[in-house]
Amino acid sequence: MEFRDSQAIYLQIADLVCENILLGKWKANDKILSIRDLAVELEVNPNTVMRSYEHLQGKGIIFQKRGIGYFASEDSTEKIVAVRRDEFLANELPVLFRNLYLLKIDIPELAKRFEVFKQHNFEELTH
């Protein structure tokens, strides 16, 4: 994983965990990677992963079974979508609209390109 300077690493790791849940790699009540395993995989300090897991646990996205590990919550997908949707609509969509306007890109062209993007990037999820 390539970390960006614009956001804290623990939040980027939390986003990665959320993405794995949204993509169905970890389903509701599935055990997720241990702190140590994810730290090794990402080549980060285990304390950073711990902070990510605590952040997600505070939002109710994951929960801990003491001595067993962390698990995706029953309604983790819904919680992630709700939070990310609100953030996107409030923060990123206005920037996207501004760029569409300035670059004279219309909605039909955007919709066509979005369909191609989904086919190339998420085809395996729809089959």
Automatic annotation (TrEMBL):
Keywords: DNA-binding, Transcription, Transcription regulation. It comes from the Bacteria. GO terms for molecular function: DNA binding; DNA-binding transcription factor activity. Pfam families: GntR. Signal peptide: none annotated. Transmembrane segments: none annotated. Gene3D superfamilies: 1.10.287.100, Winged helix-like DNA-binding domain superfamily/Winged helix DNA-binding domain. PANTHER family: GNTR-FAMILY TRANSCRIPTIONAL REGULATOR, HTH-TYPE TRANSCRIPTIONAL REPRESSOR YTRA. This is DNA-binding transcriptional regulator YhcF, GntR family. It comes from Pseudarcicella hirudinis.
